[in-house]
Structures are given as C-alpha cells and as structure tokens.
Amino acid sequence: MPGTDNLGIILVKIRAEILGVLAAGCLMGIALPPRAAAEVSDEDFNNLKAMVEQLSQKVDGLEKTHEEDQGKIRQLQSQLGETEKTAADAQKKAETAAQAPPPVAEGPPAALATHDFMMVGDAEVQYGKTHGQHGGFGLADFAPIFLYRASDNILFEVGVDITLQNNAPDGAGATTTFDLSFAQLDYLYNDYVSVVAGLMVLPLGTYSERAAGWLNKIPTDPLARDFLPGAGVGVQLRGAIPVGQSGASFTYSAYGVNGPGSVDGSGNADQLDLGGNVGVKSDGNNGNLHGNPSGGGRLGVFVPFKPHYDVELGISGQTGEWDNAGNRSWSGLVVDGAVHISPYFEVKGEYINTWVETDDMGTIHPQGGWVQAGYKLGGLNLDVPIPLINLSSLELVGRYDTANDGLLQHQGTNTDRETAGFVYYLTNTLWFEGDYEWLQSHGPNRLPSHDFVFQISYGF
Q1: Which of 109, 162, 171, 224 could form a disulfide with 352 if both were Cys (CB 3.0 to 4.6 A apart)?
Q2: What is the dihedral of CA 214, 215, 219, 223, to 10 degrees?
Q3: CA–CA distance from 308 to each of 17, 91, 341 (Å)?
Q4: pLDDT band at 221 (very low <50, low <70, confident <90, very high)
Q5: How many CB atoms lie within 10 A of CB 98?
Q6: CA distance 100 to 123
Q7: Phi–psi pair at 439, nearest 5 degrees
Q8: What is the pTM for the complete model shown?
Q9: For the chain, first and last CA: distance in Å?
Q10: How far apart, in whole angstroms, are the C-alpha atoms of residue 446 and residue 341?
Q11: CA-CA distance, 192 to 115, in Å (whole number)?
Q12: Angle at which helices 2-31 and 42-99 pack, to 10 degrees?
C-alpha cells in the first residue's frame, strides 16, 4: 500500500543517516593524525553518542508505529471481508423473499389493547342447500366475547351466541336464540397455574376451545361432537409447563363440574341432557340434579421442531353420574392430535368414545371421530393470472367424520360423511368458505345424502 511504502523509505533514510554519522566518525579517527585524534574531547564523543542513540530511538518508534499500522490494515481487511459476506447474504435473502408467495391481504390495523375492557368474537352468515329441499340463507349468527381485566392476574370473560334461523317445520316466522356460551373468572396464580371458575368451555379434546365458530375452516361441526358436553359449571385448574429450551411444553387441566343431567329425572337413554345441569332447579332452589359432580381433565404435549413445524397430542376425559337418583353414570374419552408442516399444511382430528349407563337400554356407546386436513395454495408459488382471485389466498380443506349413536341394532343410526371445501381469505379475519358434503347414513334417523354450504365469517 502507498502508506507502507513511504514509511519504508523514511526508515531507510534514517538508517542511512545513522550509518553516515558512524562512518564519518570512523573516517575522522582514521584520517586525523594520532595527535589530532587524541584531541577529540570526551564531550564531542558523548554528543556523537547521544545523537546516535536519539536516531536509534527514533527508528524504534517508527518501527513500532509501522507494526501498529500494519495491524490496523489487517483488521480493516478482515472487516472488509465480513462486510462483503454480509452483503452477499443479504442479497441471497432478498432473492429468496422475492420468490416467496405474496402475503394474505391484511385487514385494517387494529387498535392497541390499552384498556381493561374489550370485545372480540365472530359473526357468520350461511347459505345452504340440502338434497330434496329448497336452498336459502339458513343462519345469521353473532357471537361476541366480552373481556375484562380487573388486575394483572384477575380476568373475566363472557361469550354469548345470538342466532337467527328458520323456525321448526310447520312453524311461523324465524327463531332467534340467545345463548350464554361461557362466563368464567380466571385467576392467574403463577406462570404455571390458572384457576378458572364459572360456566367453562370444557377441554374435552381441542375442538370446542380452538376450532368452533369463525376458527372452523368447515362451516359444519363434526358429527361426533354432539356426543360431548360443550360447557359445564364448576372450577378448573389448568396451565402449561415448559420442557427444555426448544419451546416444547406439557399442558394440563383438571376440573369438577355439575356434569350432564336428566330431562325428566329418570335414567332412560332418551332423557340424557349433556348441557342442562347448571345447579338451579326448576323450582328456583339451588342444588345439583344428582348427588355428586363430574370430574375430568386433559393432558397434552406440544413439541415444535422449528417455526410452523410442530406436533401436539392430547388425551382427555370426564366421568360422573347423570340421572337424578345418582344410579347411572356418563363417561367420555377423547384422543386428539394436530400436526403442522410448514405454514401451508396442517392435519388434525379427534377420536371420541362415550359410555352411557341407562335404565332401559343398558350401557350404550355413542362414538365417532373426525380427521381434517388443509393446504394453502400460497405454498405452491403459483403465478396464474385469474381475474378477481388471488390463488395465494385460497386454502383447500377436506374432512372425514363418522358418528354412531350407540343404540341397539335396528334402533341406532350410523353416519359417515366426506367433505370437500375451501377457504378464501379476503383478509386475515374475513373469510369466504364453502363445502360440499356426501353422507352415507343408516338407521331411523338418517341424514340427507348430500348438501352444500357457503359461509361468510368475520372475526374481530
């Protein structure tokens, strides 16, 4: 480099000066006669010596400065190499991002949650056509959830479901229902335990807590979910415990609730009421319809491998008496699982089995299950110009579900259903859904052979 060359030239010149001085001194000693040489005083010699030492120190200082400059040069060269590598990596990432599918259209920016009270929820409008019947708009639903934060560790949440739908056959007008879905108090005891009390969504599987309503990518519920209570009045302990440093966690819940009840107090099979026992009898007095509450819970494990790649497995159950005399019990078992492979593909499902002790039919076993898969076309990086449609905003979904009401031969009904559908994401919270269903039903309560449903869903 130019700076290094100049410094070398300076050092050469200084060394030449030193050598010149030494040479001059030697010549003087040789050339002068002995008498003259003897006349060189100690003072002159010391001055010459001091001059040589000063020049030597100057050379040492310049050499040290030269070494420091060389070190700085090497450091700058190393930094330049790292900068070039970083620039190359940034260019590679930019090229990769340019090839990625366009993101789903975002909705308007949401306001920050800066208040102790807020409302969230969903709303749906359905149009359906059942085989052998006229098509029509069969459902308009509004399901707000009110959230109140009393303090850092005390929360209260209420969900209601307001539905307008056609009246029963041979009835006039339409029917409007107002249902209290849940109303619960949450106390965050610590990072691993929360205490819940009130009308709770029960953790029997994961569907009721995570997939019902707007979050369900197929407008209809799996048939076998009708064999389980959706909510119950009681108390619950729940939480999650991290496992290792990879993000894996162990989840748990344990609860006690009033449990199912009997419509007329008897233990006959057709009198089972999975959601009617809330602890207040028809005469206005407090009290459970039967002597003992039901108990249940769920154990689960969640294992992520990397972002958008994870597996979750869980097992849950509940058991307790259901008739007023306390002689008959209801029990249920649910095994659930979910797998995510990339941001575009997911598979999930549940197996459901229940045992109902009855006065008139012995123990019956309503059971069933469902498995559902979805794939977002954004993962294909398709660049196909279609008017008014962005293929990257489309997700294809499919589900198989089955249900057997467990009644005796010739009295029970068994149904299998295949569903193919789609979700078009107008925004992240505004969906247009549609599906077509094929049903094979056997028994006295057979369902129609096929139907289709379209739905507009909005989550807020």
Answers
A1: 224
A2: -130
A3: 74, 25, 6
A4: very high
A5: 7
A6: 32
A7: -125, 140
A8: 0.71
A9: 65
A10: 37
A11: 25
A12: 170
Tokens for 118, please give them.
Answer: 């807020």
The dihedrals phi and psi of 61, each to the nearest 5 degrees, come to -65, -40
Give the Cα separation of 227 and 274 in Å (integer).
8
pLDDT tens digits, 435-460: 999 998 887 777 777 888 999 999 98
Tell me what pLDDT residue 100 has.
46
**SS3 for the chain, per residue?**
CHHHHHHHHHHHHHHHHHHHHHHHHHHHHHHCCHHHHHCCCHHHHHHHHHHHHHHHHHHHHHHHHHHHHHHHHHHHHHHHHHHHHHHHHHHHHHHHHHHCCCCCCCCCCCCCCCCCEEEEEEEEEEEEEECCCCCEEEEEEEEEEEEEEEECCEEEEEEEEEEEEECCCCCCCEEEEEEEEEEEEEEECCCCCEEEEEEEECCCCCHHHHCCHHHCCCCCCCHHHHHCCCEEEEEEEEEEEEECCCCEEEEEEEEEECCCEECCCCCCHHHEECCCCCCECCCCCECCCCCCCEEEEEEEEEEEEECCEEEEEEEEEEEEECCCCCCCEEEEEEEEEEEEECCCEEEEEEEEEEEEECCCCCEECCEEEEEEEEEEHHHHCCCCCECCECHHHEEEEEEEEEEECCCCCCCCCEEEEEEEEEEEECCCCEEEEEEEEEEEEECCCCCCCEEEEEEEEEEC
- Can you read off the two tokens belonging to residue 67? 């070494």
Q: Residue 302 to residues 211, 336, 337, 406: CA-CA distances in angstroms?
A: 17, 12, 10, 33
The two structure tokens encoding residue 156: 């209260």
Question: Which residue type sits at 60?
Answer: D
119 φ, ψ (degrees, to nearest 5): -125, 130
- Give the number of C-alpha atoms closer than 13 A to the C-alpha of residue 398, restricted to the C-beta side: 6
What CA–CA distance (Å, rounded) separates 452 from 433?
A: 11
